[in-house]
Amino acid sequence: MEEAAAAAGGADSGGGGGCAGAPDEPVVSLAEVLAENEELEKEARAVLGGSDHERCSYSQGAVKRQALYACSTCTPPGEEPAGICLACSYECHGTHKLFELYTKRNFCCDCGNSKFKNLQCRLLPEKVKVNSGNKYNDNFYGLYCICKRPYPDPEDEIPDEMIQCIVCEDWFHGRHLGVVPPDSGDFHEMVCQTCMNRCSFLWPYAAQLAVPTLTKMNSHEDDGIVLNVKETEEQTREIKKESGLDHTEKCVEEQVEQCNEPSTSSGSACPKVVTQNEEQFCKLREFQRKPYLKKDTATFWPSSWRSKLCTCKDCLKMYSELDVQFLTDECDTVLAYENKGTSDQETDRRDPLMDTLSSMNRVQQVELICEYNDLKTELTDYLRRFADEGTVVKREDIQQFFEEFQSRKRRRTNRMQYYCS
């Protein structure tokens, strides 16, 4: 609390930020400081909550999602890229220059393996030479976006939000996504234009599910191509070929030819029933029947959109071939990771007061509880005045409070006598 007050008081130093004579000085109220500190702590708990700060994550194998770092001191540009877990960033690289990578999926800690020529992991020295399942990009050298620039970029004077692609997990400037991004509160996930081109099956979904955006194209001719399965037979075949579903229809046609009588089985139903079941079974085909726009831009998606992706046998095979099976897993999302991290930390967080009480006898417990409640009540009442008035809490205000509190405590103690029976 004193640190928070000191931070608030710091804004008032050098002539008094709240005085009329210095209108340009920033004024920060206690309520604003406390709210900002709470928000920062919440963000830190969300990002780091699912990671262990004491034990290397290597023993867990390829962790589904964890906070990662890259060490520029040990693996500078020109060397092989490597990633380290939260615990190793503290224990093995505490004095090194690190790049914070936020979170990555399916990653195994590299600390101390063959990529680190002069360093052995202090937490788990015995590791394989290379984690072949790990994926790396320019982020591991502190470079981001299609512009391959650091973040923060000292040469970039344009304020811009960085957004992470959920497929390649690279970070992009909002202005480099081919569209004007929606407000940050309107979408939960983004797929960059490169990944949209590679996963073209997402465009039919985007037409129905994605958050609308404003394109930044200079010409309407380049704005995109409207794809509609009703246009021509050749265009229809091309759309299905791009989406990997042309072979699916062939299988269905073969099943229809072999059908001799109606059945409840989707594999041997009559032609009419097969068509209806197939339409219901493959969501992608249903979306492809509607017009959609295919552009060279990123797309933005609302929450729970992954649950609407088709999980039929052929679509699952397509996801596997494109190495994007994770798209059907809603627990893969960063939001799910953050929620789990926050929940775990709230559960694991121990109350220091309760820890102290457990080591005391009954008389000491009663005394401590009384003193704690007195301090909490008086400090809350004292600080509420500043918050209500929107005024700055100075360091001397806090010092004065504790001096007066100690004085009142001494007076109460001198009047009290404890008797043990």
Please characterize this protein's 3D structure.
The protein is mainly alpha-helical. Among the domains are: 104 residues, no CATH class; 85 residues; 36 residues, no CATH class. It contains 14 helices and ten strands. The strands form five sheets. Strands 1-2 form a two-stranded antiparallel sheet. Strands 3-4 form a two-stranded antiparallel ribbon. It has a two-stranded antiparallel ribbon with strand order 5-7. It is globular and about 80 Å long. The N terminus is likely disordered.
General form: globular
The major beta sheet can be summarized as:
2 strands, antiparallel
Strand order of the largest sheet: 1-2
Helix content: 25-40%
Low-confidence runs: 1-22, 217-223, 225-233, 247-279
- How many alpha or pi helices? 14
Average pLDDT score: 77
Distance between termini?
A: 39 Å
* Beta-strand percentage range: 5-15%
How many E-type strands?
Answer: 10
Q: H/E order of the elements? A: HHEHEEEEEHHEEHHHHEEHHHHH
CA-based gyration radius? 30 Å
Oligomeric state: single chain
Protein structure class? mainly alpha
Organism: Alligator mississippiensis
GO molecular function, one term: zinc ion binding
Biased composition (Gly residues): 11-20
Enzyme class: transferase
